[in-house]
Write a structure and sequence with these properties.
Chain lengths: 505, 509
Amino acid sequence: MARAALMDFDEALERFDPVIGLEVHVELNTRTKMFSSAPNPANDEFHGAEPNTLVAPVDMGLPGSLPAVNGTAVRYSISLGLALGCGIAPSSRFARKNYFYPDLGKNYQISQYDEPIAFEGTVEVELENGRTFEVAIERAHMEEDAGKLTHVGSTGRIHGAEYSLVDYNRAGVPLVEIVTKPIVGAGADAPALARAYVATIRDIVLSLGISEARMERGNLRCDANVSLRPKGQEKFGTRTETKNVNSMRSVERAVRHEIQRQAAILADGGTITQETRHWHEDTGTTSPGRPKSDADDYRYFPEPDLLPVEPDPAVIEELRAALPEPPAARRRRLKAEWGFTDLEFQDVANGGLLNEVAATVEAGATPAAARKWWTGELTRIANAQGADAAGLAEPAHVAELAALVDEGTLTDRLARQVLEGVIAGEGSPREIVDARGLAVVSDDGALIAAIDEALAAQPDVLAKIRDGKVQAAGAVIGAVMKAMQGKADAARVRELVLERAAADS
Amino acid sequence: MSDLIRLSAADLAAKLASGEVSSVEATKAHLDRIAAVDGAVHAFLHVNAQALETAADVDRRRAAGEALGPLAGVPIAVKDVLVTEGMPSTSGSRILEGWIPPYDATPVRKVREAGMVPLGKTNMDEFAMGSSTEHSAYGPTHNPWDLDRIPGGSGGGSAAAVAAFEAPLALGSDTGGSIRQPAHVTGTVGTKPTYGGVSRYGSIALASSLDQVGPVSRTVLDAALLHDVIAGHDPHDQTSIPDAWPSMAEAVRRADVSGLRIGVVKELDSDGFQAGVRQRFHESLELLAANGAEIVEVSAPNFEYAIAAYYLILPAEASSNLAKFDSVRFGLRVVPEGGGTVEEVMAATREAGFGPEVKRRIILGTYALSAGYYDAYYGSAQKVRTLVQQDFDAAFAKVDVLATPTAPTTAFKLGEKLHDPLSMYLNDVATIPANLAGVPGISVPAGLAPEDGLPVGIQFLAPAREDARLYNVGGALEALLVDRWGGPLLAQAPDLSTHELMATEEGVV
């Protein structure tokens, strides 16, 4: 396939105004599925089960089986709708979306169509550069996930596959689909905004505890709609929908790529085909999928097997009262409490370390120390390992490490060694200090003995010090630190070296 | 013919409880009867090889002094629309041939828990689409009153099994009359409960908003006893009603129509109905009036649109419900010669696995739900549905129950309407309104039509959740008619074992 021509991003933004729309699917982590009593693989406890072991008759579409709505999934959906600032429908309804596909046990998906549970909200999204946007939410609705197809053969796609395997474990996993209104006015920030929006949704569902929110597992999936219109034009251009973009970074790259690709076509006098596109992580490009039109006929009709969802208003108010602080408000509060500069705070936030720093501060560390450890040494190690800093160490352990430095038990250098032990799972910092004998030697007697020995071994250095060439002391200090296996405070050693050199004269 | 098979379920249950008869004996008698006559009737698609074992188990439990339900040990036939663990369940379709479900439908589970003995699965129109059982992929069922005639449908197998004394009781399902119309043409009793009264879990869906499982029997009391077993809330079916139900059997035992206001729907008492059907209908009403009931004429002007609305709603829901039959997970798989894509295999399977009536309704329903047509067809049909419900509301503000002939004619000949779908659909003109409104209905034998000597039923309808009223009026009428006839109507049915014998001698079977 020929590689699509791309326009330079800056040039594209000079000529066109991008409009984006984002659809995020959130897999809820309820214990059972949306419409059956089968365990839910989107819950950590059941993740990774053997294919087709987490199924009930309804997930397989067995004749006679009937769906039954999972009340917890409804409550989670209401909480999510409220967190998105949405209204909750006093009565919403499930509908059948009819289409034939082998990953769909019934050959229809139970979804919500014209009567979603949550509608009309806003989410405040802060970009890495500190700019904030109010993203308008059109709706959030409940539905079920489909099974998973594995196409065996050269193409890896259903067409051209020798055969395909179906795993119905995922069929019926509860989903909430969150749909934004068209987002205009982001300009060159459109790709970053798309990424920050998904990150914000992730923060929200994590703070609600309603999803494991691991994008690499598909707990959170994003479809990105992108269209361009010439600068100054009111009417939206034709959009494409890039499906299942499964990391924050890819969301940003995919939007950026579509802007550049569409700009090149439009500038060349071409037209954009309304279609779904596949995102290719390896090449950072999209390729055409199924042509899509508004006339796609899913023959929606109200699901006759289920009653309308009519939540008790008291329950809605209970859930509203239990909502956690919105991520944007929380960031503002923490920044003020911690007294960080914009740059310091962005360093933490953009590193995805807000929760870690907060927990470390809560465990007793100063905000400065917590920030220093998480954005410094832990991030460095994580980068080297190709892992996320978050999760590398327990915030309580990091706080303990900071305390050990503060009380003088550890030098920074020793503390880094202890941290390695913590990451290796050797225990708490104190346990490691004890086990490895890493504490600073603060006994002057032991230091003086080592210094006297070093001075005696290097009489020329001693002579230079006595001549007033104080910088020569470095050689002695180095020898002492070596003898102490690094467990000494170098500044104290220097003081004592000068003292001993003078005393002996 | 063994006397055991002639007993009503209630009488058989009494003999079982007293120890006079064992469930093994009763079950054996019915299995023998099936062996003797079902070659001619073809009510059963599958006979349960475990039936005697189940019966022996109930006998053991009874001997051990275990407290058993009122119908424990009584055999029962199960319409093949209901899934049965360990027994094939085809819904009368080739596409499910040989499929053995891994679970029991809730009504089947309840029947088993009540200690009843499933005899097997009964024939039906494919996926319950039809009024004659001629649309079964496995050949038609014959009416025990006249083997050349239809037993009604879609539940012709259950009705014929009960009418032919192959089973004292059966389970049926009624989407537009599939329990009541077969009862009408076979001289049996059949109830469509209030929508949500009996769980639909495990009933292979035809039209989810219309389907309802119910009892088939020879007496009103038997229907009530079975109704009491299968009714009740089921968390697996969210459309099932959570409230507790009064005993239907009690309603029959206390049957009394004095002061009961019975509404005659004037739109369903017209020239469109066979003379003998109307004659027996009016005689029944006179009998009830003579015993204290008040007969009132009521109008239901929107009933005339019910069939049109029904034939949009039903195919629409069915087209979606039947989409699951795609060869991927269960049932028939037809691979085109030389292999094919998944779409081609699905298409070939559905082409080979579905009969013409099923295809007709899938196409109708797909069309009715299509973008651009939805409002005109499905949307309008739902509005008519609301109007039909309003007609019922208005009528029930004046009367306690409604009465109509159950169906326009007595049993017609096999093949007579097979190629005339519209005339076939008209069979359900009197039964469909109840399904659209979710209200309960019962068909009770009203006699034989003078012109052809074939059974005629009378239908009673009650407001939603008032199923007990049906058993009250049905039980009262039955008692009055049995007095008049000097015995049950089915005593007048031809003796099939003789017929079977003759047919065998002639080499027909």
